[in-house]
């Protein structure tokens, strides 16, 4: 009797277990399938347009002559400026919050708000960039305005991931350093940061790969869509890949839709390379950590 | 034997919670002093007050004096950083710096505070590793990461690291509690050799260990120093009933 009872119980449990497993697998297939379909569609319409000219030509009224040279240069300009703003400021903020600020009320409020900032819609940052950088500081619709806006946008991601990486460094290492007569800054620079560098770098790359695809803030600050030159400095007007794609997609001619798909492929390639770099970095340092 | 460290009315807190009450005692030079007592009795806090590590914890503070060679280490003119260079510390869990080689771990004290260029690093590495009885085992692989050593070797590496900056006093916070019996035996041998040159304070959970290695023993309970004296006396003829109960295994 008892044996039967428990057998019955365990068989319903098994069914439930399998049901849950099937549900999870279904979820994976659904999301990956949708993604794969999307990717396939982009590849089919974009791949034929990918040619050498596509990379070396500027925008044009004729889709077969149009290229993404200005967009690629604009994106590279903007990303390098964004990186040079958000990396030092983001890491310094994270160091301050984790190593110096302690547990004061003010520090807690700041930490909470930085986490909240990461969830603010990007168009809001676009407004901010328009009001402050374009209008108030009169940087105009320049690469600099775009980069500063993007830096603000991804700063919370850099700060939060750097904070997590710094927090993951065991207290015992800090204590070992203090006990040898190192100051707090010496400990931070020579023990904590080297131990956290892979986590920080991963966060930075992921933040930049978010910035490279952002469109809304650039539309807000008025990045140009038709540019037949390469930016010659931080104050130059510019366009960027997502803006170029947005512009081409909104045109009625089918030819522009195909080259938009080709530009999407280029953008995806950029993001893929950055994400691959992030995971290689993480993997390499994880293995060193175990040595 | 002369007293190297004198402790006067030391009290310590974590936030509002007092963990040490009016501790007064002295630590002899060129000898081992063992600190015993049940978990949470304030042993670790006590030795962390001796090199100003206690104050690195947020909201932690203390009152009272700790005198080394009759100078108060808590005097407001004293920089805690220089105190920690004079009073070395070895922790419960071996904590070699994972990104550094064996060599770099030993001279980490110099690298961290940027004085590496002023000293002969090779000589310090060999000296310190010999003192820590680790030289023979690692002399051919000094460039390998410190974390590649076994637990007991890592702990001796940490001892070498502490000795490299030529401290006057060596504090050890349960240095063997994460190690197997063979590694423990080697560390105890090492402590025995090191006491010829240093004042050593060892916190231990293990009463046999205290009896084996120390000349003096202090028994802590609930943040007070219940009894302090020659180790032999404490273990054979304790004056306080609580000490007797603890060392005979009735609690703790």
Explain what you see.
The complex is a heterodimer of chains A (291) and B (252). Chain A is mainly alpha-helical and 291 residues long. Chain A folds into two domains: 48 residues; 238 residues, MetI-like fold, CATH 1.10.3720. Helix content of chain A is 78%, strand content 0%. Chain A contains eleven helices and no strands. Chain B has a single domain, classed as Rossmann fold, CATH 3.40.50. Chain B is 35% helix and 27% strand. Chain B has eleven helices and ten strands. In chain B, strand 7, helix 8 and strand 8 form a beta-alpha-beta unit. In chain B, helix 5 packs across helix 7 and helix 7 runs parallel beside helix 8. At the A-B interface, helix 7 and helix 8 of A face helix 2, helix 4 and helix 7 of B.
Feature tags:
heterodimer; A: 291 residues; mainly alpha; MetI-like fold; 2 domains; globular; B: 252 residues; alpha/beta; Rossmann fold; six-stranded mixed sheet; four-stranded antiparallel sheet; 11 helices
Task: Determine the CATH topology of the largest domain in chain A.
Answer: MetI-like fold
Oligomer: heterodimer
Count of separate structural domains of chain A: 2
The first-to-last residue Cα distance of chain B is 32 Å
Rg over CA atoms of chain B? 18 Å
The rough form of chain B would be described as globular
Strand content of chain A: under 5%
Query: What is the helix tally of chain B?
Result: 11
CATH level-1 class of the largest domain in chain A:
Mainly Alpha
Strand order of the largest sheet of chain B: 6-7-8-3-9-10
**Helix-and-strand structural type of chain A:** mainly alpha
Uncertain segments of chain B are: none
Task: Estimate the helix proportion of chain A, in percent.
Answer: over 70%
**Fourth-tier CATH superfamily name of the largest domain in chain A:** MetI-like
CATH architectural type of chain B = 3-Layer(aba) Sandwich
Shape of chain A: globular
CATH architecture of the largest domain in chain A: Orthogonal Bundle
Give a short account of the largest sheet of chain B.
Answer: 6 strands, mixed
- Overall pLDDT score of chain A: 87
State which percent range the strand residues of chain B make up: 25-35%
């Amino acid at each position: 009797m008892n044996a039967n009872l428990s057998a019955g119980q365990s068989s319903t449990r098994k069914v439930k277990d399998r049901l849950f497993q099937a549900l999870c697998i279904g979820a994976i297939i659904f999301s990956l399938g949708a993604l794969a379909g999307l990717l396939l569609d982009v590849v089919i319409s974009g791949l034929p347009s990918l040619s050498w000219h596509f990379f070396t030509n500027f925008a044009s009224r004729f889709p077969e002559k149009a290229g993404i040279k200005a967009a690629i240069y604009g994106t590279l300009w903007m990303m390098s400026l964004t990186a040079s703003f958000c990396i030092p400021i983001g890491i310094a903020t994270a160091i301050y919050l984790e190593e110096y600020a302690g547990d004061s009320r003010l520090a807690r409020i700041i930490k909470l708000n930085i986490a909240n900032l990461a969830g603010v819609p990007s168009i809001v940052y676009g407004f901010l960039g328009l009001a402050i950088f374009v209008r108030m500081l009169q940087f105009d619709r320049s690469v600099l305005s775009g980069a500063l806006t993007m830096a603000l946008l991804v700063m919370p991601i850099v700060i939060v991931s750097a904070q997590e990486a710094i927090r993951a460094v065991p207290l015992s290492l800090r204590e070992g350093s203090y006990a040898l007569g190192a100051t707090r800054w010496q400990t931070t620079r020579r023990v904590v940061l080297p131990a956290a560098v892979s986590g920080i770098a991963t966060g930075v790359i992921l933040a930049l790969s978010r910035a490279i695809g952002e469109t809304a803030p650039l539309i807000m600050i008025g990045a140009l869509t038709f540019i037949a030159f390469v930016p010659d400095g931080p104050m130059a007007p510019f366009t960027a890949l997502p803006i170029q794609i947005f512009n081409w997609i909104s045109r009625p001619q089918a030819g522009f839709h195909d080259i938009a798909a080709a530009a999407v492929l280029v953008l995806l390639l950029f993001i893929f390379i950055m994400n691959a770099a992030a995971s290689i970095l993480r993997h390499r340092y994880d293995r060193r950590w175990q040595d | 034997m002369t007293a190297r460290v004198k402790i006067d009315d030391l009290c310590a807190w974590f936030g509002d919670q007092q963990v040490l009450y009016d501790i007064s005692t002295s630590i002899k030079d060129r000898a081992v002093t063992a600190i015993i007592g049940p978990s949470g009795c304030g042993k670790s806090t006590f030795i962390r007050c001796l090199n100003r590590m206690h104050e690195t914890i947020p909201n932690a503070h203390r009152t009272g004096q700790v005198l080394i060679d009759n100078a108060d280490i808590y005097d407001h003119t004293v920089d805690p950083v220089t105190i920690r260079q004079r009073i070395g510390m070895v922790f419960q869990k071996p904590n070699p710096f994972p990104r550094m080689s064996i060599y770099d771990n030993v001279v980490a004290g110099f690298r961290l505070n940027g004085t590496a260029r002023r000293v002969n690093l090779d000589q310090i590495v060999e000296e310190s590793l010999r003192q820590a009885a680790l030289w023979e085992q690692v002399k051919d692989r000094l460039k390998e990461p410190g974390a590649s050593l076994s637990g007991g070797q890592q702990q001796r590496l940490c001892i070498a690291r502490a000795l490299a900056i030529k401290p006057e006093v060596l504090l050890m916070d349960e240095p063997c509690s994460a190690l197997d019996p063979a590694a423990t035996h080697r560390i105890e041998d090492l402590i025995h050799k090191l006491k010829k040159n240093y004042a050593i304070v060892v916190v231990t959970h293990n009463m046999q260990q205290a009896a084996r290695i120390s000349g003096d023993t202090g028994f802590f309970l609930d943040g007070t120093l219940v009894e302090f004296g020659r180790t032999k006396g404490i273990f054979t003829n304790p004056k306080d009933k609580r000490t007797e109960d603890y060392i005979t295994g009735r609690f703790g």
